[in-house]
Amino acid sequence: MKRLITAATAISLLAAGFASQAQAQTRWDLATGYGDGVHHTINIVQFADEVRAATDGELDITVHSGASLFPQGEIHRAVRTGQAQAGELLMANLGNANPIFEIDNIPFLASDWDSSERLWEVTRPAVEDHLASEGMRLLFAVPWPPQGFYTRESIADIDDLRGMRMRSYSPMTTELAVQFQAAPTTVQEPEIPQAFSTGMINAMVTSPATGVSSQAWDFVDHYTDVQAWIPKNMVFVNERSFSRLSEEHQAAVLELAAQAEARGWEMGIQETEDATNRLREEGMTVSEPTAELRSALEDIGEEMATQWAEDAGEAGQELLQTYFGE
């Protein structure tokens, strides 16, 4: 009998030990709509690995890429409601909730790396405040390469885009297609090949990185490198999930998030060169915009900036004034 009690006690202690270990480990699901080969996802996976190492495995972040956990359009709500602890989105996808999220989609407002970084410095506090109001916390934001046009024929002027079935991925790109007198069609990144093959779209404005990940050379022949704007993805976390971490782990997550942001910007710059070269290697014609096309796009950009400022109200106008140093 004594041996049975001793054995039972040992089993109980062992079970308690396993339970204690299970309770000590916190698991986060991080949902993203982008594939494994995109520099954003590569950066996020590295961030998750670094968090796991820094916390001795006590915080384990599983990255669910390619919309495998939630469709891209549902990630914001999933994180807000706690169905996923963290997520990644193109910031402009939330433009209908707050115009601040689509400021980096205004054509030619910030189309080089220095101005894009300056724009982010100015707008980041407003983005953080909005997320906080919804019970979420910004971790980091990383840019895409500058945006250009993918078409089957070369384009010399804005009129060449009229009537095209153009992919849109945000409220601002939908408005841009309307300005071109094209037909905007919402297509998320993983769906691009199917959308082209079925004729849903026959043109798109996006980055060279997305052109490579979607193998755009299978569907179009021309990439016009207008470098119209530099959009960003942001990674954010449910505040309640974050607050449950120890102070030590919170500090580690924030420090590694800052490193991921700095690394991600460098990756975006390098990806611009690498992906553009890849488009050439795959046989696509990569060209600079004509003076006529660029002038027309700049005019549209001014109109869209004016409309954005009206929609954003006084707060948005103050942000633009700060950005321009007025």
TrEMBL record:
Q: What is the lineage of its organism?
A: Bacteria, Pseudomonadati, Pseudomonadota, Gammaproteobacteria, Oceanospirillales
Species assigned in the record: Natronospirillum operosum
| Transmembrane intervals | none
Q: Which Pfam families match?
A: DctP (PF03480)
Source domain of life is: Bacteria
Gene Ontology biological process terms from the UniProt entry: transmembrane transport
Alphabetical UniProt keywords? Signal
Q: Where does the UniProt annotation place the signal sequence?
A: 1-24
Q: What is this protein called?
A: C4-dicarboxylate ABC transporter substrate-binding protein
